[in-house]
Amino acid sequence: MTEIYLRVNGEQRSVVVDNRVSLLDLLREHLGLTGTKKGCDHGQCGACTVLIDGRRANACLALAVAQDGAEITTVEGLADGDGLHPLQAAFLARDAFQCGYCTPGQLCSAAGLPAETGPSVITADLTADPPLTPEEIRERMSGNLCRCGAYVNIVAAIQDVAG
Questions:
Q1: For burial by CB atoms within 10 Å, which of 70, 72, 112, 133 has the most?
Q2: Is the full-model pTM beyond 0.85?
Q3: Which residues form the 2Fe-2S ferredoxin-type domain (predicted)?
């Protein structure tokens, strides 16, 4: 057992966890933040995507003890009080979800996109910082699966916010 200190959604937390506990299980089972979903538990679906120090990460693959001192943002931490995060509002406006199971991971992943600069594997000019075109958004969101197939509206919602 190890005591770790995290800042989760802006709140400083101290938690004693087993060294084998994933960040996903820490969030859901120890802190009661059930917005982050357990999909495949193998890092393949993206339902558990959170932001660790502003970068997208699959919480099911991250050991909680390795995040000691980190800033964690879950879907619950995206909104500003009672106001929706612009991505949340865009997802609602664009009907960018169906069953909603993947939506928290999609939202956290989309929130992390602006921090990722530089070319992707589909960028033609490798010296450029490409705009978030629909093609770039699809490529950069490819780790987040939607079983319902709401991709067209998800891309449109992200593009609305990205400009």
A1: 72
A2: yes
A3: 2-78
φ and ψ of 52, to 5 deg: -110, 115
Is residue 135 within 8 Å of residue 142, measured between CB atoms? no
Look up the CATH number of the domain holding residue 49.
3.10.20.30
Q: Which pair of tokens denotes residue 27?
A: 């969030």
Six token digits for residue 58: 């699959």
Alpha carbon distances (Å) from 33 to 14, 16, 61, 66, 121? 15, 16, 17, 19, 34
Q: How far apart are CA 127 and CA 31, in angstroms?
A: 43
Q: Return the H-helix or E-strand segment holding 2.
A: strand 2-8
**Total H helices, total E strands in the chain:** 5, 5
pLDDT tens-place string over residues 84-132: 999 999 999 999 999 999 999 999 999 999 888 787 888 877 777 788 8
Dihedral (C-alpha) 141, 143, 149, 155: value to the nearest 10 degrees? 0
**Domain co-membership, 47 together with 98:** no
Residue partners of 128: CB distance under 8 A and separation at least 6: 119
